[in-house]
Design brief:
It comes from Colobus angolensis palliatus. A hairpin with an 8-residue loop joins strand 6 and strand 7. The chain has 749 residues and is α+β, with helices and mostly antiparallel strands. It contains 24 helices and 33 strands.
């Protein structure tokens, strides 16, 4: 910057937007490349380039997994969007957000408001606050429109076992979890999502995203997707390989479809990125295909427009699958979405602009950089049979989005190298089977070179034999990669690496009966699925997973690097054991647990909910007489507060609410994290104006109008943090002072 500022006098900021040099949105090589490949229809090139230079409109998705989604939609449409009508910001008329035509049930919206305008203009402050707060509590997601497509095309059902291979930062994973919980009345769907990412730090981003949905059916793991281990599960006492019904393979890519958002792509774009990524993309897709169940669906996607990362990967995968995989025709699955069919002819260009039309013309010196799998299949019949036109390429100017590529694959039979083949060269069955299982063995989706696929070392075995071979390997104590979990004790099985272990609570643990009795848990409560994160000392937090994930966890202790799984359902009361039950309910897991609880439940009215969420410790007498009569005979301790919507009163909130609370001496308090409190208050039509820190009272437009000053009536000895409060030590943390549940990604031990 120093150089450019000379001689500008006081125009120091000339050409500097917000302290950054204005990036010139030009790249001649980019234009030359894509014009030559003809990915844009005749006559649309100008529109295509213009669209790329425009900033991306903000899009948001209402997370559809709560009956709450409908309420949030109602709130957005009738309140926030209404307030945006006739608004002008900096002389520009604000367009009211519109639903994305192809996203089901109006659950996704786009708006011309850029992030900058949203943050800067006072008229939009309320709307911005709403977006931030609702995103925090997991009710909406800021997600790019095109990124919503792959999960929709996976066509998920609640019983599906799903693998998300390259999942961070997690917006697509969130969509998948929602689809598992399509029926809110089923606390434990049979399906699950295993979300993987190679980057340990990004895995924690995934954990954070998934946590917002409090699902017992998600597990975050940390592996290289191109060699993600084969997992086993127990099926009626037999160990079998876990094949997934649905796989999302959203691979790392050069990202040239994201230029509208990631401006530096303009400057950095070269064909080299694609040439370097192609091999990895093909290995990841191959590994996915191997783990897909027959009849299962795999979606391959990139945010790149480049055929080397798109059609070339799909064509090579189809070619080496020898008919085991087919491209599905999904042209009628997302009505309203505009896309271009996949292309069948393309060429390869080096970073200095040299073109090659087929592998035979590539000089030896280039063989490390350019591979045969990058070219279209030579045989016209083979090419036609692949139906590459069934791929979808989404161009930015068609619906004002990012650029994107999606292909949907269906598995018809085992991959050829996993099929049983005749014995070769007298190789004994044992060595063949162990080849199949070694994590770096060729059959693990890392063929060094596709042309060598026919070599005898690729002789695989049928899928079921593999499972038995796996069992033998385990029984011989033949540990792979020197990764050893601690020895399983008879009582409990441990796993996890540097992470805290996940320990299922033994059947006869004395910890459980008092909990069962206090909350009158239903006999159907799946207690086998309770786990903790500590082997020694007091168990502070109890978590739950679905029984299917329990099966996965128990059978793969040494193969899998689990970062996080399970939702918190109970935490220990700090102020000790004098209550009938040492564990209080945690808001995070209450929707999962609630169906099994038969006592300690208080039904509350909408007015009660408002008081409970805005005042820290309201006296019984502030609540309705119905609520009081239920509370007065309950022993002190953890309670459930349940609001049931009244369909006769359409103005009232139409979705059920379950809150965790505490019945004190003469008052009730709720344990609900702040953003969740604000969410419920908003859904009930209250605008949150601020908080009075001293009184722990949340001010809303109603309370401010009705009383000049909220009553300060916390009785002696009942300030947060004094002995009567269940969490004396926690109450001093700012999160809990507002009645929150201290939320860390990692439960403290």
């Amino acid at each position: 910057p120093g150089k450019q500022n000379r001689g500008l006098g006081n125009r120091v900021d000339a050409g500097w937007e917000g302290g950054y040099p204005e990036i010139v949105k030009e790249n001649k090589l980019f234009e030359h490349y894509y014009q030559e490949l003809k990915i844009v229809p005749e006559g649309e090139w100008g529109q295509f380039m213009d669209a790329l230079r425009e900033p991306l409109p903000a899009t948001l998705r209402i997370t559809g997994y709560k009956s709450h989604a409908k309420e949030i939609l109602h709130c957005l449409k009738n309140k926030y969007f209404k307030e945006l009508e006739d608004l002008e910001v900096d002389g520009q008329k604000v367009e009211v957000p519109q639903p994305l035509s192809w996203y089901p049930e109006e659950l996704a919206w786009h708006t011309n408001l850029s992030r900058k305008i949203l943050r800067k203009s006072p008229q939009l402050e309320k709307f911005h606050q709403f977006l931030v707060s609702e995103t925090e509590s997991g009710n909406i997601s800021r997600q790019e429109a095109v990124s919503m497509i792959p999960p929709l095309l996976l066509n998920v059902r609640p019983h599906h076992k799903i693998l998300d291979m390259c999942a961070a930062p997690g917006s697509k994973t969130t969509q998948l979890i929602e689809m598992l919980h399509a029926d809110m009345n089923v606390p434990f769907p049979e399906g699950f999502v295993i979300a993987n990412d190679v980057d340990n730090k990004r895995c924690y981003l995934l954990v954070h995203q998934a946590k917002r949905l409090s699902s017992p059916c998600i597990m975050v793991v940390n592996h290289d997707a191109s060699s993600i281990p084969r997992l086993q599960i127990d099926v009626d006492g037999r160990k079998e390989i876990l094949f997934y019904d649905r796989i999302l393979c959203d691979v790392p890519c050069s990202g040239d479809g994201t230029m509208r958002k990631n401006i530096d792509v303009w400057k950095k774009w070269t064909t080299l990125n694609s040439l370097q990524l192609h091999g990895l993309q093909l290995r990841i897709a191959t590994r996915g295909a191997e783990q897909l169940a027959e009849g299962g669906r795999m979606v391959y996607s990139t945010c790149s427009l480049n055929p080397i990362e798109d059609e070339a990967v799909i064509a090579s995968l189809l070619e080496k699958s020898e008919g085991a995989l087919e491209l599905a025709d999904v042209s009628d699955e997302l009505p309203g979405l505009k896309w271009m069919p996949g292309i069948t002819q393309w060429k390869v260009m080096t970073k200095d602009g040299q073109w090659f039309t087929d592998w035979d013309t590539v000089p030896h010196s280039r063989h490390t950089q350019i591979r045969p799998t990058m070219f279209p299949p030579q045989d016209p019949e083979k090419l036609q049979a692949m139906h590459l036109e069934r791929c979808l390429r989404i161009l930015p100017h068609h619906q004002n989005t990012g650029g994107f590529f999606v292909a949907v694959l269906v598995k018809k039979s085992s991959m050829p190298w996993n099929k049983r083949q005749p014995k070769l060269q007298g190789k004994s069955a044992e060595t063949r089977e162990s080849t199949q299982l070694s994590p770096t063995g060729p059959a693990e989706g890392k063929p060094a070179d596709p042309s060598k696929l026919e070599s005898p070392s690729f002789t695989g075995t049928g899928d079921t034999e593999i499972a038995h071979a796996a069992e033998d390997l385990e029984n011989n104590g033949n540990k792979k990669d020197g990764v050893c979990g601690p020895p399983p004790s008879k009582k409990m099985k441990l796993f996890g690496f540097k992470e805290d272990p996940f320990v299922f609570i033994p059947e006869d643990d004395p910890l459980f009966p008092p909990i069962e009795k206090f909350y009158a848990l239903a006999p159907s409560f799946p207690r086998m699925n309770l786990l903790t994160r500590t082997t020694e000392g007091k168990k502070r937090q109890l978590y739950m997973v679905s029984k299917e994930l329990r099966n996965v966890l128990l059978n793969n202790s040494e193969k899998m690097k689990v970062i996080n799984t399970g939702i918190k359902v109970w935490c220990r009361n700090n102020s000790g054991e004098e209550f009938d039950c040492a564990f209080r309910l945690a808001q995070e897991g209450i929707y999962t647990l609630y169906p099994f609880i038969n006592s300690r439940i208080i039904t509350v009215s909408m007015e009660d909910v408002k008081i409970l969420l805005t005042q820290e410790n309201p006296f019984f007498r502030k609540l309705s007489s119905e609520t009081y009569s239920q509370a007065k005979d309950l022993a002190k301790g953890s309670i459930v507060l349940k609001y049931e919507p009244d369909s006769a009163n359409p103005d009232a909130l139409q979705c059920p609410i379950v809150l965790c609370g505490w019945r004190g001496k003469a008052s009730i308090r709720t344990f609900v994290p702040k953003n969740e409190r604000l969410h419920y208050l908003r859904m009930m039509g209250l605008e949150v104006l601020g908080e009075k820190k001293k009184e722990g009272v949340i001010l809303t437009n109603e309370s401010a109008a009705s009383t000049g000053q909220p009553e300060n009536e916390v009785p002696e000895g009942q300030r947060a943090g004094e002995p009567n409060s269940p969490d004396a030590e926690e109450a001093n943390s700012p999160d809990v002072a507002a009645g929150g549940d201290p939320a860390g990604v990692h439960p403290p031990q």
